[in-house]
Every structure is written in C-alpha cells, then in structure tokens.
Amino acid sequence: MKKSVFFGALTVAGLVAGAAAAGTVDDIKARGKLNCGVTTGLVGFAAPDANGEWNGFDVGVCRAVAAAVLGDPKAVEFVPTTGKTRFTALASGEIDMLARNTTWTFSRDVDLKFEFVGVNYYDGQGFMVPKELGVSSAKELDGATVCIQTGTTTELNLADFFRSNNISYEPVPIETNAEAQQQYLAGACDVYTTDASGLAATRATFENPGDHVLLPEIISKEPLGPLVRHGDNEWGDVVRWTLNALIAAEELGVTSANISEMSMGTDNPEINRMLGSEGNLGEQLGLSADWAKNAIMAGGNYGELFEKNIGESTPIGLARGLNAQWTNGGLIYSPPFR
Amino acid sequence: MTTLTDPPKESFRLSMLIYDTRYRSLTIQAVAMLGFMLLAAWLINNTIVNLATLGKPIDLGFLGEPASYDINQRLLDYNSRDTHLRAAFIGLINTIVVAVLGCITATIIGVLVGVLRLSKNWLVAKIMTVYVEVFRNVPVLLWIVLAMAILIESLPAPRDFRGENPEATLSFFDTVAITNRGVYIPEPLFSNSLGNIHLFGDSSLRFDVSLDLVAILIVLAASIFAIRKVTARAARIQAATGVRPKTWHVNLAIFFVPMIALLTLLGFHLGYPALKGFNFQGGTHMRNSLIALWLALSLYTAAFIAEIVRGGILAISHGQTEAAGALGLRPGKTMRLVILPQALRVIIPPMISNYLNLTKNSSLAIAVGYMDITGTLGGITMNQTGRELEGVLLLMACYLLISLSISAVMNWYNKRVALVER
Fold first, then answer.
1. Which of A278, A316, B49, B177 is most buried, judging by how many CB atoms fall within 10 Å of its CB?
2. Residue/partner pairs of A87-91 with CB below 8 Å, 24 or more apart
3. pTM assigned to the model
C-alpha cells in the first residue's frame, strides 16, 4: 500500500509539473547533467551532426548554461521537442530549460506559467515559395496551400494575416520541420511559412536553394529566447545572466580567443566582475566564480555563436540585422554586470 | 425426556467480521474498496492542490475563447474566430468521419480476404495469407506514414496539370483530379436547393443539415418500403397460387422514377474540379491526409477482421457445407446463405473490439496532419491554452463516448443475429 501511494504520488507529481520542485540548480548539480529542450532538428539552430553531436545557435545557449552551472559544456542531455510537446516537457520538469526558437508571447509568459529569460534572436514570420510560381508578395497567395508547423505562434499569425487581408488559404498542419520540407519539396504545398530564420535554415539544406525565394513580407514579431518554468527564480536568474554574459562579452570584446588572458584581470571593472576576478557575482548566483568564463569558453560570445552557426559565412547566411549589438544599431542588449 | 431447545441465538460479534467465513469476504471487499477510494481521493486532491499552487486550477473557461487557428478539413462552418469548443467539435466530426469510413471499408476488405483465404485456389489463398501477415504485424503508424509518403511523392502536384502539354491530366473522362494534395471528385450540386436547417442556433455545436439530403433520404426510404411491400405481395401470391408474378420491372420503376423526379426538381448537377490559381477549385476535395489515414487504418484493421471471419467460417461444421451441397446449392450460395449467417454469430463480438481499435487508432491522425479531435482539442488547443489536464480529460471523455456508442450499436446488432435458443 505504502509503495502504491508512493508511486501514485510520483505519477501525480510528474503530471502536475513538480510544482514545488525548487532548487533546479541543485537538481542539475546532483544529476551532473543539464536537460535542455531543443528542436527535433533545424540546421543552424539545433541539429545533430554526422557524429551525433548537437550543434547550433540554440544548442550554444544550452552548452553555455551547462558550462556555467557544471563547468562542462558537454554535460547536456538534449531533448528533442516538437512545437506541440515542448511546453508540456518544460512544465512537467522533463527538461530544465527550453532553447527551441520559442516566441516570447504574453500568454506563454503569463498563462502557461513560463519565464522567458531574454531574447537570443529577434525574428519574424516569413513565407518561402518556389521561384517558378512567380509570386512576389504574400498578398498574392489567395487560395494557396500553406505548410505550417502545428502548435506554433506562426499558425495563429497565419490565420490572422490571411483573415485581415481577406484572402483564403488551405493550411496543411505538420509536426516537424523535416516533414514540412518533404511536403513542400514534393509540391504538396505551395508555401512554407515559419520564422524567417527557420526558412533560411531550411532553404540552406535544399539541393537547389536558388529555386526558392523568401517573400518580402514579415508578418509578425517573433522574439525567440530561452525559457524556464515559473517558480524557481534562482534558476531563471542563472539562465538569464548566462545569456546576458554571452551578449555582454561580445559588447565588451571578450572572445573565446582572449578570454583566458582577460580573466586574469583587465582595466575594465565590468569585465573583471563578469569573469570573476573581482566581486562575487558567481557566488550570488550560487555558482563558481568562473561561471561566465566557462559559459563564454563553451562556444564563444554571442557574436561568435551567431557567426559560427547561422552567420553570413555559413550556408544559412543570416545577416545580423536586428540581432546586431545595440552599439551597432541592433536590438541585442545586455543589462550591466554590476 | 428430551427438551427441544431453540438453537442458540447467535449474537453478532465484531470479531466475526474476520473469523467468520460468511462475513470475511465482505470485510475484505469493504476494506479494499475503502482503500481504493482513499487512494483515488488522495490522487485527485493532490492534483487539484498542485495545480492550484502552479496557478492553473481546473477551469474549462478556455473552451469559450476564440481558437485563432484554421482547420483545413471542416464539414461544418468554422473560421479562426470560432471558439475552442467549436474547433474541438469540428475535430470530433472529423474523427467520426474517418472512423465510419474506416469501419465500412475494413469490413468489406476483411470479409473478402477472410473468405478468399479459405479458397481452394492455392495462389489466392497464399496471397491473402501474405496480406494478413504483413499488415497485422507492422505497426499501424508506419502504414499511415507510408501511405502518406506514397501519396505525396508519387502523385503529380497541381502545377503539373498546367500548360500546353501538361505532365498530368484529369482522370475518368476529365472529372477527377488526382493530385498529391488530395483527390478532387465531382460534387453534387442543386440549382433549386431547399437550403439548410440550422440546428442549435449560434452555439458552438451548431449543425447545418442539408434539406436536399433529407429529401433524398426520405424518398429513398419510401421507395425501399414500397419495394418490400411489392415483394411481400408477390410472395403471398406465390404461396396461394404457386405462380410468382413478375416484379422486377415494378421494383425498378418504384426505385428510379421518384428519385429521378426529385433530382430533376432540385436541379441536380455535378460540379467538376478545375484548376484555378494555386489549386483545383470546385468538386469535393478529399485530402491526402484523410485518404492516407483511411486507407492505412482500413487495410490494417481488415487484416484482423479477415482472421476473425476465417475463424468464424471454420467454426461452422463441415457437415453444413455437405448438407447444403446435398440440397443442390452452389458453393457461392452455400457461403452466402448457409455458412456466413451462422458464422456471423461467432464473428460479431470480436468484430466490435476491432471497430473500437480502429476508432482509437484514428488518433494517430496527426502523423499525417489530419485534424481529428486529437489534433484540435488535444493538439493545438491544448498547446495554445496550456490546459493539458482539462484537454486530456475531455479528449478521453470524447473517445469513451464514441467507443461506447459503437459498442451499443454493435451489441444491439449482435442480439439480433444471435441464435434464438428455446
């Protein structure tokens, strides 16, 4: 009887999201591994390479957090989630954080009880069509068949966009990016719509990327960022400031190349505070003093992560645009380390 | 002298609850029941308390919010401004559509395959064996995905129908468009339509019934009723005089004349699909997702039904076949008139569970993007509102309701064909 009560309790605790489970940082340290939710595969953002190693821009955030908490960027268990399963996985405690190009919206933040710790990519929803269709604007898509990943904000934006422009369309709901790609390439849908970055990443994997165009309309604001559950603010702070450390590092000129040298101490007190040679920021977070150094060493600062995974030198070829540092006219901005 | 004494009056003692075999089982049951109820109460209470601490108390209010997403296959009117409840209802209808279509097709294929598997023709029997073994031993999800992949990859896209020398053309005398987005078949249209009746006003469960369809069904029922009367009369005359009057021409007339008259009155004509813009317009669009799901579920379940049918037939003793043969019945008639009616009694009970399985398996629809109730209520709605517990409970209630309805109908039918024992 006792046992069944115990297992019953486990089941329910699992069901209702381990509401009382505080101390995520301790859990991760005890486990020795960070459980990080990512996409099922979107080249550039999160995808396993030929050796099964996960790589990408979102993966970089996971690795940085793992390095900050555990000192080891490899101590991450990547949990692939679909647009539909991601929130349940996070709410139930299956994953500690979600870095899966997830749009920060009011209802997700407030109603779904999540905490977005920041924005690592400012995106917007776009459309991709085959060049041969001769479409030059999304407003010409009346009657088109549109492939769309189900369970995403894009689904809602799409409905709103077509409704407000009073044109009709046929949605084809799809679970994963790979399936969408298959249907789109086979011509089972005329248009594929998702975040513009995702479109660029998907197009880069096509045999003939030049045969497909992204339409000029960006129909929504999609601030993408990592998120955690409500209820453990300490853990939220760790993820938030790890992301901020990556961003601040780029702004302050700290790169993976010069960080060993800089962490010895520099003339800039903010760098010193961040890298732990001055003050006790790490201690305040409940981490070691070199937490930010580890995080930045994991994959480089924000700019390095961007260039390596989705930047203009990669097949995905995204320009910094809105995602440039605020000093360069972009929106990427970290609060001060003070 | 003996005195008769009353048997000692047994007084009830508490210890008898344990030591007296008459009461012991009751005691154990009561304790087990109490324990079970405590456990259930504790689980429910724990869930509610934990949900409350999480700030998500159980609340069905989300069903009244606008759904904000579109559904491609909708048999009733729906747009993205309708409520989540309406979206769930549309999904429920889609589930029922694929379940009904699947059950019918699976039964037809299953009975055919089951009978053919007993064929004396070696090749036919072996082919059917291979079919049954291949289909029932591979998970149905794989069949669904395979069917979808074949439809998408092998059929022409609508744009292949375009141009001077198109790569693809319409089939069946230019009436049916088979594309990798689905099959467009001619749709029945009525130029003097009677319109629709709107049931349930403006609520989320509003339901339009086409009066044209109702009229056609009424005429059809009346015709069939009249034909049965004519046939019964012929049988009476035959019983009295030994001569059966010719009825087929009367029956044909009764069946076709009123129907043709009604269709002419309604201005019946067919609407053909035509390429317009990105897609075919006009005609009834049977989406790939529906076809793939329907096909895979039917073929998969048919393999099980075939085995049930075969078992049912084998359960009828061979003497019956020999007796029918002795009476001069041909093998086909023997099967139809002697064996199958008796086999039905064995076949129907396991058939019910296969229908239930098919219905429940239809929840795999999301694999091909078919918007059934799992896709709407259990998918997008749950995802956008974050009401997992409520959503899943409602979903379970819906499936329970569908399954119990199927059982009820099938059990009623089973009672009708069951052997009446005296």
1. B177
2. A87/A112, A87/A114, A87/B383, A87/B386, A88/B388, A89/A37, A90/A37, A90/A114, A90/A227, A90/A228, A90/A229, A91/A17, A91/A229, A91/B386, A91/B388
3. 0.80
